[in-house]
């Protein structure tokens, strides 16, 4: 089993189930899979092939999910990178990974526009620019022929880079087996199912939000609720409005949210699992987390 086929499996099972909530957009599994397939075909027509490295430079938006699965459908290797990296760090990863293509979001385009000078296939959301194709145009003009990933359990499918706090960033390769094992484990431990609604607010370029929560949610056909950034107001609003059941965040997200002056005004009763990671949470701050917990079921 590979990530692309997990998505295709959910389309066969629950084609009209809500897959993605991103801003005002609501997308079913069938619609999501169609976009993924067209983007995969479009990238293939531009020269992306099996084993090529494709850098994904986007915040948590529907386009991130489209690119992630489209690249895996091509049996290429997806390279998600942090949207907050500076240009020198991005250039290093482009060169170190031997990337074939670079896909970015219009919100981040000013950071990377000069990458068009490199020997890269460059795509961005929104309008085309000098040296950059429009991702939407590529999708709209792509072949509709269904495409199936043939990658096996031990094939390499993802390359994530460390933060580089003690030196240059280091690339870490993941196989289908690596990813599917932790995704399955998390889905079981966190009791995710078709009715789960998982909020992705921490950057999906990081392994925990990506592999432990995004992949596990897709594995069970849950709904992905996307937010391109974190604020306490946005977290509380999305949990209440979208009836979120699962959230993974860094400790600071909980500390800031628990101190929100109007937290009592939000209905957080849908939440079943608040999960934190990435750093320890000091015992003296746990009462703030308990404050959130008591507002839930």
What does this entry look like structurally?
Pfam families: AMP-binding. Residues 9-283 form the AMP-dependent synthetase/ligase domain. The model has no long low-confidence stretch (mean pLDDT 93). This protein is 39% helix and 19% strand. The radius of gyration is 19 Å and the shape is globular. Helix 5 (109-112) links the parallel strand 5 (99-104) and strand 6. It is α/β, with parallel strands linked by helices and 297 residues long. The chain has a 6-stranded mixed beta sheet, sandwiched between helices. Strands 4-3-5-6-7 form a 5-stranded parallel beta sheet, sandwiched between helices.
Topology:
Blueprint: H1 3-13, E1 18-22, E2 25-28, H2 29-46, E3 53-57, H3 62-73, E4 77-80, H4 87-97, E5 99-104, H5 109-112, E6 121-124, E7 133-134, H6 135-140, E8 156-161, E9 171-175, H7 176-189, E10 197-200, H8 207-220, E11 223-226, H9 232-242, E12 246-249, H10 251-258, E13 273-276, H11 286-293
Parallel strand pairs: 1-11, 3-4, 3-5, 5-6, 6-7, 10-11, 10-12, 12-13
Antiparallel strand pairs: 1-2, 8-9
InterPro entries: AMP-dep_synth/lig_dom
Protein name: O-succinylbenzoate-CoA ligase
Keywords: Ligase
